[in-house]
Amino acid sequence: MGKPVNSNGIENGFGDPKAYREAIALVAVAALAAVLAGCRPEDSDPPVPDPRPNIVIILVDDLGWNDVGYHGSEIRTPFIDRLAREGVRLSRFYGTPICTSTRAGLMTGRSPMRYGLIYAVIQLWTNYGLPLDEHILPESFRAAGYATAMVGKWQLGHDHVRQLPFNRGFDHYYGMVHGPIDYFTHVVGFGPTVTGAVDWQRNGRTVYEDGYATDLLAREAVRLIETRDRGRPLLLYLAFNAAHSPLQAPQNLIDSYAEIADERRRIFAAMVESMDAGIGSVLMALEREGISDNTLILFFSDNGSHQTWGRTEPLRGGKGTVFEGGIRVPAIVHWPAGLEGGREVSHAFSNLDVFPTLAAAAGVPPRNEKPFDGRNVWPQIQGGDALPARDLFFAVEQSDDFWFAVLHGEWKLVRIESKRNDQAKNHLFQIEEDVSEANDVSAAHPAIVTGLMQRLIEWRRLHPSTGIRRNIKPHPGWVPPEDWASGVRQ
After folding, report:
1. Which listed residue, 78, 141, 288, 452, has the most CB atoms within 10 A of its CB?
2. What is the pLDDT at residue 486?
């Protein structure tokens, strides 16, 4: 099920054999042209480097607003802080309440409501994934000549080989296809959901190796940067599973946070610092390779942190809610050669904007046939005026409730619908002046509530009948595979 190997038996991480043959053909054509011009190929000038930027998307997991140093956290994050200091801080960047829906929106630029990935994460026993007819970001970049690689957490489908990253636009994949894994054994699940099955692979082949997951992911990202095809720009999607539970970190880092009384917060802090160090190793690799200036880095979290051990103050709520603490996340864009840094931009941006925005910044034609729900906000990141207000929608299913929100300009409607008694509660906030969502003004503005409710109803109608819902228990008879790479259907 893995990628083909070349004639020397070495796996082609960047580019399959077809791409390799095409590259050889181009070299042959260039040599022939040189001969016809009356000179030898070795006397020709070296090829002009591709001027387009390398792209590194760093997506981290369950990192709250107040879990980074540049927002005042006690957690040490010097490399994230450096990106914030040198780059552009996006102070109103929105993910979604949970992992899968943010990742789906990032990849497609389209609302996960449209293809049934909005309400719940893809569980181990779920055969549904990101639909194959959804065109995704790496496909456009690869078609434009970029080398494409993914390292880390996928969680967009694992049941069939066609759902996996190396068949969806990434030349190379290393990491886990699921969500929570043991950071040291790489076994899927924790607590009562431990499966005993390893989920750690490289291009469809299980890799058994020792090491803390965060360190291994950073090491692979560095290796890919150092061994990249220097004739092509690189798109690297580095999706850390840190700092998602289970709470595990190297003991020396845990001990270094002895001043934090709460044990869970102490371990979480160590996990975040380890992830920050991994980001630092990537930054240093870019510098060693001489490509840091022309590398566009986008850093953000998929959702807010768990309220038990994370911190989202001054925002309300956390992961799994549609309050600001669950969906407004730390986000930074860093590109020394193409973007004036040391600034903060307060326009409302969404994970749905990533695909069209990065494509515009890199000069890559998007090849999607279905229309984006996100939009190109590169001019606004550069310092341009705000675009006209648009609706941003959020939803998540919890065990007892459905949570919904719609954001439009200064207004935000939060609606919580009970599964037990069909009752619902609306909350209306003037979010630009009430970032903590402390003052519900729904009673004073019934017309605003009605208008936003109608927008929300229309959006909810997009959900397909096949979409996934919250299901925290496997269906009867489900048995996990021995390892997750070999258990994939062909």
Report:
1. 141
2. 85
